[in-house]
Amino acid sequence: MPNPIKIQATVVSHIKITEGVFSLVLLPAKRRFSFYPGQFLHLAIDPYDPNGGFWPDSRVFSIASSPDSETIEIVYSVKGAYTKRMMNEIKVHDSLWLKFPYGNFIINNFLDSTVTKVVIIAGGTGISPFLSYFRNKNVIKDTSQKHLYWGVKSPEIFNIFQDIDEVLDESFTLHLFCENPDKTALRDYEIGILPIQEILKNQGNNASCLYFLSGPPRMIMSFKEYLLENQVLEENIIIDDWE
């Protein structure tokens, strides 16, 4: 596992995806960094003195870019005072500080010869940790079945993953859901929220099936609870809890 480092990075782009959702792309000052798809970082927008200074207030975000990219991308929703500061204060060419990598949400660490199905469930910007996998092609070990369920509130959020057709492994079956439909959307999707009951009915609770969950904490907890109540083994439910 790579050791965490503190590194300064320059803002390359800060783009509004839709109301309250942004993509932030950063260029680290040094190329010598490494992480595994699924890991996360701490981002600080206040100054930091690497010569013995205290690490400033920061927030954690899943890394959405591939480990072989020169830049690092995160996607965030504006939900509190810190992310409001990010939305209002971060400008192109600004210098920010990163501390990474952290986390054990590494899909391959959970796969072995007994696993025949991988079911990924992402809510909104919870797609972020999986983007790193898909953009780092062939990183997920081969299993007989792979499914990606992604649910969003508005179709504009699908723009987070504009390269989906280019980078998504052909072995994946894609299931898209949108709460608020838009007839002008460029991608087909089913109307409504992520249907955990239907997902479980279709994918089952076999011990050889793993569920990976990422999204709003309330969604993760309710989905996990439902899966447990329906005899999915706890060790077969892996959540992105940023720990």
UniProtKB/TrEMBL annotation:
Domain FAD-binding FR-type intervals: 4-108
PROSITE patterns: FAD_FR
Keywords: 2Fe-2S, FAD, Flavoprotein, Iron, Iron-sulfur, Metal-binding, Monooxygenase, Oxidoreductase
Cofactor(s) for this UniProt protein: FAD
UniProt xrefs under SUPFAM superfamilies: Ferredoxin reductase-like, C-terminal NADP-linked domain (SSF52343), Riboflavin synthase domain-like (SSF63380)
Keyword Oxidoreductase tagged: yes
InterPro entries named among the record's database cross-references: FAD-bd_FR_type, Flavoprot_Pyr_Nucl_cyt_Rdtase, FNR_nucleotide-bd, MRET, OxRdtase_FAD/NAD-bd, Riboflavin_synthase-like_b-brl
This enzyme's EC code(s): 1.18.1.-
Gene3D superfamilies the record matches: Nucleotide-binding domain of ferredoxin-NADP reductase (FNR) module (3.40.50.80), Translation factors (2.40.30.10)
GO terms of molecular function: 2 iron, 2 sulfur cluster binding; flavin adenine dinucleotide binding; metal ion binding; monooxygenase activity
Keyword Phosphoprotein: no
Region forming the signal peptide: none
Main EC class the enzyme belongs to: oxidoreductase
Name by which UniProt lists this protein: Propane 2-monooxygenase, reductase component
Organism name: bioreactor metagenome
